[in-house]
């Protein structure tokens, strides 16, 4: 597998969606309903699934542009500066009037697990008109990243613009919501965890992490029936599974082994995976190779607190891959 970092000659990556300020409290365990716990630290960090994905891809050398909205407040400035520092083009991130930047309230326990509540803020103002205004950014794009932290109408407008431009459309079905068949048909790769995959397939049971590849064939068939040619199902500490109906026989289902690390904070690790996948796909990798690279990047991201500041560069990912 070619694990060299993407360069400026790689195809452009467009990310359309959310930017949030992450208000994070660290505690020994997550609280039960109605329970109050003492925290062990508090931070305000740049986050939001789309901003995280853009930064992750940018740190890996990707040529990235972000389309989104923030408020005219300090959190909005923080987010724009963090994205720009990673080399992301933020010229299509609108400063919204009369609304605050989106926020996420995050609790992280001693094992790195988290619970998150988001308030859309300016993300809720992102509309198909913003996608239309960014039309020039889509021209010649290789990869488009989408999530569900903004309105479905906007997500579908972006997917259509990406498909029309010839980009490979990556749809991260998070936070989970039902999607129209039209959006599924516009998407090339679905990115989901096991729970989200089960929800998308109407409650179908997802194979156990140690299941044989053949156990995943019905899942792939159901995805194709729903209009999705490919998917990556992440399995947390157990790695991931690549389901690709476009691959040659024998490579349609590929299990990606986990990268073992001591997790400190898993917040945004899924976004690090998406950004890494986008970077490698834009550089021309096959889906399974891109997923193997992305898996390492996501694992390394979990070894540090925070999201964007924790994301590794290509040198760190390559060092772990080649160790």
What would the average pLDDT be, to the nearest integer?
93
CATH topology: UDP-N-acetylmuramoyl-L-alanine:D-glutamate ligase
End-to-end Cα distance: 14 Å
* Rounded radius of gyration (Å): 18 Å
Largest sheet, spatial ordering of strands = 5-4-1-8-9-10-11-12-13
Number of strands: 13
Count of individual domains: 1
Helix coverage percent: 25-40%
Can you give a write-up of this model?
There is one protein chain. It is built from eleven helices and 13 strands. With 323 residues, it is α/β, with parallel strands linked by helices. It has one domain: Ribokinase (UDP-N-acetylmuramoyl-L-alanine:D-glutamate ligase). The strands form two sheets. A nine-stranded mixed β-sheet has the order 5-4-1-8-9-10-11-12-13, sandwiched between helices. It has a four-stranded mixed β-sheet with strand order 3-2-6-7.
Strand and helix layout:
Blueprint: E1 12-16, E2 20-26, E3 42-47, H1 49-59, E4 63-71, H2 74-85, E5 89-96, E6 102-108, E7 114-119, H3 128-133, H4 135-138, E8 141-146, H5 152-164, E9 168-172, H6 181-186, E10 189-193, H7 194-200, H8 217-225, E11 230-234, E12 240-244, E13 253-256, H9 269-282, H10 287-301, H11 314-321
Helix pairs in contact: 1-2, 1-9, 9-10, 10-11
């Amino acid at each position: 597998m070619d694990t060299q970092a993407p360069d400026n000659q790689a195809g452009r990556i467009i990310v359309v969606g959310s930017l949030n300020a992450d208000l994070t409290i660290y505690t020994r365990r997550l609280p039960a309903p109605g329970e109050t716990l003492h925290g062990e630290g508090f931070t305000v960090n740049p986050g939001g699934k789309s901003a995280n994905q853009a930064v992750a891809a940018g740190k890996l050398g990707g040529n990235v542009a972000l389309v989104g909205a923030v408020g005219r407040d300090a959190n909005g400035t923080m987010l724009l500066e963090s994205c720009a520092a990673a080399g992301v083009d933020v010229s299509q991130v609108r400063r919204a009037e009369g609304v605050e930047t989106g926020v996420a309230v995050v609790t992280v326990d001693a094992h790195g697990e988290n619970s998150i509540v988001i308030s859309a803020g300016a993300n809720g103002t992102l509309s198909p008109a913003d996608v239309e205004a960014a039309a020039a950014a889509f021209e010649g794009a290789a990869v488009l990243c989408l999530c569900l932290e903004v309105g479905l109408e906007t997500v579908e407008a972006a997917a259509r613009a990406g498909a029309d431009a010839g980009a490979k459309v990556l749809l991260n079905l998070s936070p989970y919501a039902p999607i129209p068949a039209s959006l599924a048909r516009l998407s090339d790769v679905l990115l989901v965890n096991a729970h989200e995959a089960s929800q998308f397939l109407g409650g179908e049971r997802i194979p156990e992490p140690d299941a044989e590849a053949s156990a995943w064939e019905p899942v792939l068939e159901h995805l194709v029936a729903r209009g999705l040619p490919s998917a990556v199902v992440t399995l947390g500490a157990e790695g991931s599974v690549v389901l690709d109906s476009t691959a040659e026989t024998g490579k349609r289902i590929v299990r990606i082994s986990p990268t073992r690390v001591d997790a400190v904070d898993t917040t945004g690790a899924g976004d690090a995976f998406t950004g890494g996948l986008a970077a490698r796909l834009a550089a021309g990798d096959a889906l399974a190779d891109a997923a193997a690279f992305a898996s390492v990047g996501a694992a390394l991201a979990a070894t540090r607190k925070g999201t964007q500041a924790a994301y590794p560069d290509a040198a760190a990912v390559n060092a772990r891959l080649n160790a």
